[in-house]
Amino acid sequence: MDFATLAAQLNAGTILPEGIVITTLLVVLVGDLIGGRSASRWIPYFAIGGLLSAIIALYFQWDNPNPISFLGGFNGDDLSVVFRGIIALSTAVTILMSIRYVEQSGTALAEFIGIMLSATLGGMFLSGANELVMIFISLETLSISSYLMTGYTKRDPRSNEAALKYLLIGASSTAVFLYGVSLLYGLSGGETRLGAIAANIPNINGAQSFGLVIALVFVIAGIGFKISAAPFHQWTPDVYEGAPTPVIAFLSVGSKAAGFALAIRLLTTAFPLITGEWQFVFTALAILSMILGNVVALAQTSMKRMLAYSSIAQAGFVMIGLIAGTEAGYSSMIFYLAIYLFMNLGGFACVILFSLRTGTDQISEYSGLYQKDPLLTLCLSICLLSLGGIPPLAGFFGKIYLFWAGWQAGEYGLVLLGLVTTVVSIYYYIRVVRMMVVKEPQEMSDAVKNYPAINWKLPGMRPIQVCLILTLIATSLAGILSNPLFSLANNSVARTAILQPAIAATLKADATPLSVVKAAE
User: Fold this and answer.
1) Exposure string over 177-209, b if 16+ CB within 10 A, otherwise e
2) CA 143, CA 33: separation in Å to the nearest integer?
3) H and E: helices and strands count for the chain
4) H/E element holding 359?
5) Are 255 and 142 in contact (CB under 8 A)?
6) Distances (CA, A) of 14 to 17, 91, 171
7) Domain ranges of the chain
8) Which 3 state secondary structure label does DSSP give 65?
9) pTM given for the model
């Protein structure tokens, strides 16, 4: 094989965005070694610039006529482009809000950003991975980096405890997931590419294979851990409470988006024979996640734990689009994850700012905050109301799109449950807003009474202010001006070849009962 043929088969230009992130990571590490503490003044902004450059590179890869690269190991189709963009953008926003937090904790900022960029690389590669080995390596890159970030504030015993729990449960879920994909490898006769696995399994094992169902169960267990779906959510509340807040902000958006990208690609490509089975399992996970996440959140006294259970519930809502299996279903998932990025990261930015100024994250301590910090109160209120699905904010349009896609696909019970649990969620979101806004001055909490004077000129505070304003504007306007996002989500699904057979099979299955009735008549 000559060099030109090898280069054509590798098609390395497909991973140019990841190449930019790798270069950024190397510059951050070398710059920190050379510049020491003084390098922390420019490193975070350079990292953000590198991530934005990667997003620009992704824009130019849209509708790539030749997306397959590395001998079929990576697929840079439009679906992966959107998910990689969401992950890179979530990291850029997270770095903005983490500068002051990490410096105040007394730990090294450059190393923290380096680990976060490594996690970003894992998530981006996972979004386009088209081969079992690539999937596993990408998943482990994301997971190990997440474990390291969770325990990054090593002087904090809560952070150490969270990291240990996350590591132990994560290692178990990884082992289960690996067993599932090894079964796929064996059932397919030694294939690792997802398309070849789907083609070989029926030839070797026939139309029905019990081993394939076992593999599916183990794979879904691994995916459920990554997206914080009940009953694989045990790590979520403890990790959210104990880990550094910027870390859980990234985990709630970037890691979750990578998990859903893996779910779509792996389930639709490798398990087309048992689509009904995996949709049934995810229906059970969605029901559990929506009920458990929203009901248990009602009893929380810590803002971070409340957002943890909110994250579990939000995963349940997003699964409605996955279960629908239609073009509108997959598009609604992408649309909701894109706006979830801004409203969730905006909420965590507010939690970071409040904890920096008061040293607490207890919900009761937010009482009367409007009197001292109107900007923080406004941003947190808008983000929480958007998470609850209050019109005309972005979250309302995201949930409407998800529920509409589920209703069209005949998932009436799931949609009705989603509506009921959304009403439940509004209660615990509005409880925080009411506490901040409605309380009389004499009912202020001690933390708010001792609230320090607002000074945005302190080191690292200006990036948090920029983050607050950006997320506030995006959350307020993304719903009203949602046509570009709608078009992006719809086009990414319509132009992704691997989804078309799954969508066609779903439409055929939905049309079968109607044709039987007409034939009987």
Assistant:
1) bbebbebbbebbeebbbbbbbbebbeeebeeeb
2) 25
3) 22, 2
4) none
5) yes
6) 8, 21, 31
7) 274-510
8) coil
9) 0.94
CB neighbourhood size of 501 (10 A)? 13
Sequential pLDDT tens for the chain (521 residues): 567 777 777 888 899 999 999 999 999 999 999 987 788 889 999 999 999 999 999 999 998 888 888 888 899 999 999 999 999 999 999 999 999 999 888 888 999 999 999 999 999 999 999 999 999 999 999 999 999 999 998 888 889 999 999 999 999 999 999 999 999 999 888 889 998 998 888 887 665 678 889 999 999 999 999 998 988 888 899 999 989 999 999 999 999 999 999 999 999 998 888 888 999 999 999 999 999 999 999 999 899 999 999 999 999 999 999 999 899 999 999 999 999 999 999 999 999 999 999 888 899 899 988 888 899 999 999 999 999 999 889 999 999 999 999 999 999 999 999 999 999 999 999 999 998 887 677 778 888 888 888 888 888 889 999 999 999 999 988 878 888 888 999 999 998 888 888 888 877 776 654 443 344 44
Residue whose C-alpha is closest to residue 40's, from 28, 24, 52, 51: 28
d(CA 230, CA 228): 7
DSSP H/E element including 222? helix 210-226
Q: Tokens standing for 124? A: 């981006």
Structure tokens at 88: 């890179």
Provide the angle, in degrees to the nearest 10, between the axes of the packed helices 256-270 and 303-324. Answer: 20
